[in-house]
From TrEMBL:
Residues 11-87 form the Insertion element IS402-like domain. This is Insertion element IS402-like domain-containing protein. InterPro entries: IS402-like_dom, Transposase_6_like. PANTHER family: BLL5188 PROTEIN, TIS1421-TRANSPOSASE PROTEIN A. It comes from the Bacteria. It comes from Streptomyces mordarskii.
Length: 119
């Protein structure tokens, strides 16, 4: 994969926020499998799939990560709450730099008409 694409998808500043939040890799107790994969390469592949709309099975080989590995880590990271923690870390970093403007915000909401007789 080209360094330019990798840096655009996961710049060093983002990686410095992500790396400490990732659950540690543990080898399978039954043995077998392959050697651990570079976590940044896996994260970059996941970001590519999520931002491009590419199907997991069509992940380009240039990422150096199998589609199965990328999907398996995405699932594990989701179960571990990585995305919520990463969102909070990005907000904290932007807030610390004074780059958040809270003077206006959009809150997603839905309203449902009450059924007749309900209050």
């Amino acid at each position: 994969m080209s360094v330019g694409l990798s840096q655009r998808l996961v710049p060093d500043a983002l990686w410095s926020l992500v790396a400490p939040l990732l659950p540690s890799f543990s080898s399978r107790p039954q043995g077998g499998g392959t050697a651990p994969v570079d976590e940044r390469a896996v994260f970059t592949a996941v970001v590519y799939v999520l931002t491009s709309g590419c199907a997991w099975r069509h992940l380009p080989e240039a990422f150096g990560v199998s589609p199965a590995t990328a999907h398996r880590r995405f699932s594990a990271w989701t179960r571990a709450g990585l995305w919520r923690r990463l969102h909070q870390a990005v907000l904290d970093e932007l807030g610390a730099r004074g780059e958040l403007d809270w003077t206006s915000a959009i809150v997603d909401a839905a309203s449902v008409r009450a059924k007749k007789g309900d209050r």
